[in-house]
Each structure stands twice: as C-alpha cells, then as structure tokens.
Design brief:
Structural class: alpha+beta
Largest sheet: 3 strands, antiparallel
Strand order of the largest sheet: 1-8-7
Order of helices and strands: EHHHEEEEEEEEHHHEHE
Distance between the termini: 24 Å
Strand content: 15-25%
Number of helices: 7
Helix content: 25-40%
C-alpha cells in the first residue's frame, strides 16, 4: 500500500488572515477555483480558498514542484475531469502531465485535514474525513447513520462518551465513501465500517488535530481500484 501523508491546517485566528488568503489565492489558484469561492458567502469562500491553497502547497511539496506550476485536474463521476472543473476528487497536472498523487481534503470545526498518497498507482483512491462530536449527538443519529453491527458496539459506551464514539464511526464512514466515490448516494446505515481493508482511524499525534476531533483515512487496495469515479470534500 502506498504511503499516506496527512497534515492538519488550523482555523483562522486573526481577521487579517482572510485578506491575506484572498490576496494569495488571486496569485496562486486557478480561475475555476476563484470562481467557485466567489459564488459562496464571504466566510465560506475564504475557507475554500484557504483549503485549496493548503492542498496545492501540500501537493507541490510532496512532489518537489513549484505550486504555481500546478493546474487543477479535479474529477467528478457526473461531470468528468479537466482544468475547467472546480469540484469533485482533488487532483493536479504539471506541465500537461497528470501527477501520480491521490488526494483528499476534509473540514470540521474550522480545521482542515489534508491527505495524500504519493506515487499512487493508476486508479488508486483516497478518502479522509474529520468529524466534530458536537455534530453527532442528536436524537436519531444511530438509526439514520449507523449499521446494526455499529450500533451494537455503542450499547456499553457511557453516555458522556457516545458523541465521540459516533464521530469516530462517522469519520470512518465518510472517509470510506469518499474513497469509493459513492458519497452519500447510498444509505449510511447500509455501510458497516468496523473492519474494512485500507480503512483506519487517525491519531491526533499523527494528524496534528485537536484530540476531540475524530479522523479516519481510507486508501484503496488493488481489488477496489477499478470502481466508479469519485468525489472529494473540497
């Protein structure tokens, strides 16, 4: 299995950082990325730009190429692949050549988590997700989101620890569905992620995320590499 690299990007702490992000994005990002950000509310657009800047620098650093020389090459199962596409599974080309890099991005609690598999084989897929337990504590979450076997694992979990346990399962589920490309086109409760090949939890020491956030990564094994096209959180 290819080596997976992960990196956490902290939230903005100062108002002036938003201005700096927008200024740098105009210089470094492609037009399709800028257009997508402009279509969002200002705060959401700035978060998107910050994530795209971080992802581009991450990819450039791992492959030892200039970030300004990368061209976006996102892929979507419905819309295809190309530099005019600003959504879907992240990817880049360099001087016309597609780069051997599987990428994924996730956000939660204003934190961003990047993941990359370097020297990815053709068709290799990657999914990463972070979840805040505050988002998984609502009534009915288990029935809508968890498979029967997953619900059984929560029976003996103390009430105060249930949100964190649910967040861990949901992060695994989202990471897996990003990797396969199915996303939420399938019912989450139909997918059991307790034991899946290539799927694992990410420790805060590995990611740099705050310990209360759950994180997981899924990397396709060869038998899965020929599935449908994918999507990514970007």
């Amino acid at each position: 299995m290819a080596q997976c690299e992960v990196r956490a990007i902290p939230p903005f702490l100062l108002p002036g950082e938003a201005t700096a992000v927008r200024r740098e994005a105009e210089h470094l990002l492609d037009g399709v990325e800028l257009a997508r950000a402009k279509a969002l509310a200002p705060a959401g657009g700035t978060r998107l730009l910050a994530g795209r800047l971080a992802l581009r620098r991450f990819a450039a650093e791992l492959l030892s190429v200039p970030a300004a020389d990368l061209t976006v090459a996102y892929s979507c199962p419905r819309c295809g692949t190309g530099p005019e596409l600003g959504h879907g599974r992240p990817g880049y080309s360099y001087r016309g050549a597609t780069l051997p890099l599987a990428l994924s991005l996730s956000r939660a609690g204003d934190w961003t988590l990047l993941a990359a598999a370097v020297d990815a084989a053709p068709g290799m897929r990657l999914g990463v997700d972070i979840e805040d337990p505050l988002r998984t504590g609502f009534d009915g979450f288990d029935e809508v989101s968890l498979a029967p076997a997953e619900r059984r694992t929560l029976r003996d979990v103390p009430a105060e620890l249930l949100p964190a346990a649910r967040a861990r399962l949901w992060a695994r589920k989202e990471a897996w569905l990003k990797m396969t490309g199915e996303g939420l086109t399938i019912a989450p409760s139909s997918l059991d992620v307790l034991d899946r090949p290539g799927l694992r939890d990410l420790d805060p020491d590995e990611t740099g995320l705050p310990p209360h956030l759950a994180a997981a990564v899924a990397l396709s094994v060869p038998a899965q590499a020929s599935g449908n096209g994918g999507s990514g959180s970007s």
